């Protein structure tokens, strides 16, 4: 119960911070960075449910992100679909693909699972590059504004409200999922698949479900990001973006919802600071990942929390 109260206290703190940020950040550039952090955090929280809580590696999640973004771009641009319908169809198509590949891929373990998910991401990226009549190919494609009925989302403040609401909703959902029987089953699978099966957990089913969930969330975030940015290129579905997402999970903290948000914040701001060192971003991300795994293998938030708990005086 104490842990549950702490988690929802964290949700309240997050809500307060998100409410105060537009007041503190008066520069449109900082609001833009905050929006990107929120959208990245949504994807990273879902990916952490797969990696941190269930113990399944994915190096291809940028492909799902790109599927959502390009579904919204292509359907609204070439077929004049309403943005909300394009978003839903893109998420549904992503979910179907994830469901089809989930069981065979998730039978693998360790580096073979990582290579399989990497291959899936590469296939999606190649398809986006090659289908130039729909996607614009390597040159990219413009994305219309997001309209719902007669209302158009425009301006940094409006987009910030959307991204902040989406982040709060995803955080609340993840916290509830973790404390549910489903969440306990996922954590049991991470601990030991054999023991989970002996205890009656259908490990294949639960792994497939969380894989599909994380893919659909990535697709939705990709669609929202595409409408916000207004122009997308195949790089958002590429290998480096997948590595960025995994690094955010690892640095922030495996099996930590709030660690996902911290990881997303740190590694979304970092490229802005490295703009003068163009071409070295990959090296820096690799160094950060390596240092984190050596000195804080559980990630920033769990490691700091563990050290704080160890410093508390023991009750006599």
From TrEMBL:
Localization: Cell membrane
Coiled-coil segments on the chain, per record: none
Membrane protein topology class: Multi-pass membrane protein
UniProt main location, coarse: membrane
Family annotation (InterPro entries): ABC_transp_permease (IPR001851), LivM-like (IPR043428)
Gene Ontology CC annotation, any one: plasma membrane
Repeat is among the record's keywords: no
Record-linked CDD domains: TM_PBP1_LivM_like
GO MF, one annotated term: branched-chain amino acid transmembrane transporter activity
UniProt keyword Membrane, yes or no: yes
Keywords: Cell membrane, Membrane, Transmembrane, Transmembrane helix
Pfam families registered for this protein in UniProt: BPD_transp_2
Transmembrane segments: 36-55, 62-78, 84-106, 158-178, 210-233, 245-270, 282-301
Protein name: Branched-chain amino acid ABC transporter permease
Organism listed in the record: Massilia polaris
Lineage summary: Bacteria, Pseudomonadati, Pseudomonadota, Betaproteobacteria, Burkholderiales
């Amino acid at each position: 119960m104490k842990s549950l109260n702490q988690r929802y206290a964290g949700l309240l703190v997050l809500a307060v911070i998100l409410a105060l940020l537009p007041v503190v950040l008066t520069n449109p550039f900082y609001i833009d960075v905050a929006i990107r952090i929120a959208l990245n955090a949504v994807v990273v929280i879902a990916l952490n449910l797969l990696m941190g809580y269930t113990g399944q590696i994915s190096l291809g999640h940028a492909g799902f992100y790109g599927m959502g973004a390009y579904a919204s771009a292509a359907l609204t641009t070439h077929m004049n679909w309403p943005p909300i319908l394009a978003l839903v169809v893109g998420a549904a198509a992503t979910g179907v693909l994830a469901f089809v590949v989930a069981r065979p891929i998730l039978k693998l373990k360790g580096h073979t699972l990582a290579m399989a998910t990497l291959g899936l991401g590469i296939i999606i990226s190649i398809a986006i590059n090659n289908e130039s009549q729909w996607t614009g190919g390597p040159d990219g494609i413009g994305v219309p504004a997001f309209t719902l009925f007669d209302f158009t989302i425009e301006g940094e403040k409006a987009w910030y409200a959307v991204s902040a609401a989406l982040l709060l909703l995803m955080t609340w959902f993840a916290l509830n999922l973790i404390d549910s029987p489903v969440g306990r089953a996922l954590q049991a699978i991470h601990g030991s698949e054999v023991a989970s099966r002996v205890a009656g957990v259908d490990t294949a089913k639960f792994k497939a479900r969380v894989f599909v969930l994380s893919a659909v969330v990535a697709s939705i975030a990709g669609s929202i990001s595409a409408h916000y940015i207004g122009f997308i290129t195949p790089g958002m579905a590429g290998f480096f973006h997948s590595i960025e997402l995994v690094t955010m999970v690892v640095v922030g903290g495996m099996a930590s919802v709030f660690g996902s948000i911290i990881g997303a914040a740190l590694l979304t701001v970092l490229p802005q600071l490295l703009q003068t060192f163009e071409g070295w971003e990959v090296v820096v991300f690799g160094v950060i990942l390596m240092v984190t795994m050596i000195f804080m293998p559980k990630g920033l938030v769990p490691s700091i929390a563990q050290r704080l708990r160890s410093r508390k005086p023991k009750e006599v």
